[in-house]
Amino acid sequence: MSVFAAVEAGGTTFLVAVSEPGNPTLVADSFSVPTTCPATTITACVDWLRTKHFDALAIASFGPCEIDPAADNFGFITTTPKPGWQNVDLLGPFRRAFDVPMAFDTDVNAPALSEATYGAIGSPSFGKRTIYITVGTGIGAGLFFPPPSLSFPAHYAGAVAPPSVCG
């Protein structure tokens, strides 16, 4: 049975987890590390995952980040206002460390997909349209509309309001 790993790259904390075998919705083990400098934070996550067995890895990141697999900087956090995190290759260290299939998306698109798939409105059939809205440092929205009805190649599609809205 497959075990899945996930990294939620947040602006204040990175959360890393591995699933129960055969059930991606149940967490078997998890780890968190404060979001300090990129090298320290990413290395801590990679090192923790090195102690685990998993068959695939998904990373959901604060942004803006490049989510177009055809882009040269796919998997990078790009023009974020977070000091020290501009143009950071987040996906690369994981690709170099682990030979498993990987997915990379924004921290709003990933939960939209998860809710559409496993949440209260979803099912494993991927048939539900979902809009996931989050309010934190900024306000963002992740959209999941089953293909081919809608897709956004850039992170900016998820930005629905600037941080100044929250005061």
C-alpha-based Rg, rounded: 16 Å
Bin the helical content: 10-25%
Shape: globular
User: How many beta-strand runs?
Assistant: 10
Annotation keywords:
three-stranded antiparallel sheet, 10 strands, alpha+beta
Describe, in plain words, how this protein is organized in 3D:
By secondary structure, the protein is α+β, with helices and mostly antiparallel strands. Helices cover 18% and strands 34% of the residues. The chain has three helices and ten strands. A hairpin with a 2-residue loop joins strand 2 (13-20) and strand 3 (23-34). The longest helix is centred in the first third of the chain and has 13 residues, at 38-50. The radius of gyration is 16 Å and the shape is globular. It starts with a strand and ends in a 6-residue tail after the last strand. The model is unreliable at 153-158 and 161-167 (pLDDT under 50).
How is this fold's topology laid out?
Layout: E1 4-9, E2 13-20, E3 23-34, H1 38-50, E4 56-61, E5 76-77, E6 88-89, H2 91-97, E7 102-106, H3 109-118, E8 130-135, E9 139-144, E10 159-161
Parallel strand pairs: 1-4, 4-7
Antiparallel strand pairs: 1-2, 2-3, 5-6, 8-9, 9-10
Task: Quickly describe the structure.
The protein is an alpha+beta fold. The chain has three helices and ten strands; from the N terminus they run βββαβββαβαβββ. It has a five-stranded mixed β-sheet with strand order 3-2-1-4-7, sandwiched between helices. It has a three-stranded antiparallel β-sheet with strand order 8-9-10. Strands 5-6 form a two-stranded antiparallel ribbon.
